[in-house]
Design a protein that fits this description.
Residues 3-104 form the Core domain. The protein is α/β, with parallel strands linked by helices. The protein is built from two helices and nine strands.
Amino acid sequence: MAHLSITTAAAEQIHRVLDERGHGLGLRVSVKPSGCSGYSYVLDFADEAANDDVTFEEHGVTVYVAPEALEMLDGSEVDYVTEGLNRFFRFNNPNVKDECGCGESFSV
């Protein structure tokens, strides 16, 4: 069975954005072919669950993963980090074999 973990920082940010939006079920994660290394993460907020979504719950939040992304994301940790003035969700993904120099895409 696939596994995806959610850090406390990521859960707090998901809660914060859902509260600001006033609606939504959680964070939706998928991947798409993109960039110089092959794939990029696609993040959105889920307002409804798709029948084939795989869900992961931790720290009171739910992350919805598209089934076609599940194998690439298995074992990943969703984190929310601050680097300088930038704040963003980061995926600590053990399946990544290579990343592009700008960090926007990866290969598995």
